[in-house]
Amino acid sequence: MNTDSTDVRTRVSQAETLLEQGRPAEALVLTKPLADAADAGHPALATHATVLKALGRTEEALAYNLTASRRFARSGVAWHNLAATLGDLGRGAESRSAAERAFSLGLDAPQTWSLYARSLLAVGALDEAERAYRESVGREAGGEVVIELANVVWMRRGDLAEALTVLDDGFRAGGPASPLVRAKARLMEAAGDAAQGAHLLAMAAERLPTDIPVLLAAAQAALETGAGVRARAIADAAVALAPDSPEALNQLAIVQLGLGQPDQALATARRGLALSPDHQSLIGWAATAARALGDPLYGELYDYERMVGVYEIATPAGWPSLAAYLSELAEVLRRMHPYAQHPFHQSLRHGSQTMQAIAGSTEPAVRAFFQAIDAPIRQHMAWLGQGGDPHRRRRTDDYRIAAAWSVLLRPGGFHKDHFHPQGWISSAFYVETPEQALATDERQGWIRFGRPPLTLNPPLEAAHHVRPKPGRLVLFPSYMWHGTEPFTTDERRMTIAFDVVPA
């Protein structure tokens, strides 16, 4: 063992520790010179790629994974890592091939089977994907993969009992109780049985009294099913266990609002924001409490005229017209919507959502979309201007797409009112719109802003609407409540949504 190799291992280990601590920028300083060395080893290349992905620089990470797969072509792990990054970019076919190469080299890890399953979903091989998920679960009943399998079963066949069985079997095989019981309750709610889900979470909170995520889920479910007193007791217990947890304080503020205590809710949200100033959910609930109180903070955070931007994209190069482009884009996206049911952990109802990342797609129409939205995003950032409010103070001169997906709503479809906790600027881009519905007095199919998903007294109704139009892009703060007015006409509504974060 020479000094140089010892030093490399030490620095790789230090970088891994920094990653675990949520300090990827510091880890990058350690890994970049190691990975850029002419004789970089596989640990250095792999760790540097992981650091880049933690920073949202997935395309850059791919280059290092490709180098590793070429330099260490007999390493199943190198091909696994390449498959994972290709999957993160939405390049399903390439991810599938890389995973199959890892298998051919003897790798048989549950993690490889799960990323293989995701790559199969991305290319529409749903039967094979489901089998691959079961192979992964059979090797290790990890909570995330069991939940993904249950979601696929639910979306494909809408069979609640079968999807619940997947979760129960995962638990009996040794899967973690907390995420599985929370997923089970969400699945029940998505299938129309919120009361049963709330009952399940109430029992889980009694049996897991120190599990903060279970307590928060139980408090929310209790509130949504009319058990406000119980919700308050559970939320108070969570805050007592974790008094400096922004998530616990966020849930307490929600419960206080639901109990008609907006003054307490605003104070609690402010306490959370003192700990985590950019916490989008806390900002959103603080704005809701401020609106209920008539506090000027609401106007600062929900300045529709200066924060909700409406843009029309230019026709991408290579298409004769915007209509021709949108027609091809819709055809490509429709192939990504093979599901019968909505995901049980998302806001949409009576529709489907793509299950693969699309921002890195190699489909020409999808790639053209992300090129076409660059100018409107930059225009919007410039239009926002500088400011000390929680939205504008994060503005920089650049951005990156944190996540992107497509939603297809069928007749009766809608989005529940929600916001995007992981974003900064969120969006709705309209590929297809239900024209008959849009013309109704009820504004069916329109995007609405400002209505929280709690029934308050007095109720807070939507305060702003934007009419969809094919080719139209709407940009708004990620903490801003938004949803869709349900439509009943025999039409479809297809969108692309994405979250932008400062770079």
TrEMBL record:
<protein>
    <submittedName>
        <fullName>Uncharacterized protein</fullName>
    </submittedName>
</protein>
<dbReference type="GO" id="GO:0042802">
    <property type="term" value="F:identical protein binding"/>
</dbReference>
<dbReference type="InterPro" id="IPR019734">
    <property type="entry name" value="TPR_rpt"/>
</dbReference>
<dbReference type="InterPro" id="IPR011990">
    <property type="entry name" value="TPR-like_helical_dom_sf"/>
</dbReference>
<keyword id="KW-0802">TPR repeat</keyword>
<dbReference type="Pfam" id="PF13759">
    <property type="entry name" value="2OG-FeII_Oxy_5"/>
</dbReference>
<feature type="repeat" description="TPR">
    <location>
        <begin position="246"/>
        <end position="279"/>
    </location>
</feature>
<dbReference type="Pfam" id="PF07721">
    <property type="entry name" value="TPR_4"/>
</dbReference>
<dbReference type="InterPro" id="IPR012668">
    <property type="entry name" value="CHP02466"/>
</dbReference>
<dbReference type="Pfam" id="PF14559">
    <property type="entry name" value="TPR_19"/>
</dbReference>
<dbReference type="InterPro" id="IPR011717">
    <property type="entry name" value="TPR-4"/>
</dbReference>
